Amino acid sequence: MSNSALGYTLVELLVAMAVTSVVLTGTYAAYAFFAQQQQTLMAQTEVDRGALRTIDMMQADIRMAGFKDYADPNPMPATQAIVISSANPGDISFVYDDYDSTGTLYRALVRYYLADVSSGTPRKRLLREWRKCNNPIIGCDLASSTPINGASASGEPLLDWVSTFSVQGLNAKPGGTFKDQFQTIQINLVVDSPKKIEGTVRTVSKNFTFLARAKNVSLVP
After folding, report:
1. Which of 50, 37, 11 shows the shortest CA–CA distance to 206?
2. Distance from C-alpha of 18 to C-alpha of 208, rounded to nearest angstrom
3. Are 109 and 133 in contact (CB under 8 A)?
4. Are 218 and 81 in contact, with CB atoms under 8 Å apart?
5. pTM of the entire structure?
6. pLDDT band at 120 (very low <50, low <70, confident <90, very high)
């Protein structure tokens, strides 16, 4: 038996170690890449889920703005169906008639706005106030309404880590009951994921821009 058949030479071992190192480095890089992609996808899904739920709720309130039930004797002031207190950051309110869980008719005021969160990491949160108008015959605003069913006066948290919330009224009605009221509302939301992607300093951020029609403002002559 020759000496060459007894084992590997030092050169062969070094070559094998080098090849193994390259393979392991490539495998780790591929794993890290796909792990980051998976985390990004999960963060995007989480942001989408919360944002789309909030958008559905806002679109429903916008469609109802200005609705006056046939059984309500109180007039619906044209100037109160939609009130934009601030365009950016957004602060918008809608007034419409609704029925509570007992079937009692009342006039509701719903407000969306951003608020600072002081606990933990400083950030902004989108809130929805749901209020009952105290005396609809003379109108309804924050000062003349109260939270419904003991709800918090600051509103219900809808969406966390909102970096942008802006509102714009479009297509003002030229005449009729709701003269000068907006028939369409455009809303822009930018929502961030609270989690950084592992191995990076970046977070997922998504922009949502949508239009919603104020159906009652548009249809009432």
Report:
1. 50
2. 49
3. yes
4. no
5. 0.81
6. confident
